[in-house]
UniProtKB/TrEMBL annotation:
It comes from Limosilactobacillus coleohominis 101-4-CHN. Its EC number is 2.7.7.6. Keywords: DNA-directed RNA polymerase, Nucleotidyltransferase, Transcription, Transferase. GO terms for cellular component: DNA-directed RNA polymerase complex. Promotes RNA polymerase assembly. Latches the N- and C-terminal regions of the beta' subunit thereby facilitating its interaction with the beta and alpha subunits. The RNAP catalytic core consists of 2 alpha, 1 beta, 1 beta' and 1 omega subunit. When a sigma factor is associated with the core the holoenzyme is formed, which can initiate transcription. The keyword Zinc does not apply. GO terms for molecular function: DNA binding; DNA-directed RNA polymerase activity. Belongs to the RNA polymerase subunit omega family. One of its GO terms (biological process) is DNA-templated transcription. This is DNA-directed RNA polymerase subunit omega. The keyword Transferase applies.
Amino acid sequence: MILYPSVDELLKRVDSRYSLIMLASKRAHEIDKYEADQWRADHGDKPVSMEGDKPLLLDHYQSAKSVGKALEEIEAGKVTIDPYHTEDKQD
């Protein structure tokens, strides 16, 4: 159950629960990749390319988990759905 940010506040930023779930899921994957690459860059012995990584957008998060961080970014208006973006679909 999501306590913060509230679903009502999130739905003011996104038009449907489905869109909210898809947006949060995508952003959480980006956060996971960024944090994993950052950790490898700091602790690994091989250079790590951070190209294409999308950094964290807020200075402070209440949640430690990537989905919670993604929802906080959505609530803050830092992450939105691009209505003109289309996914490349493979046949």
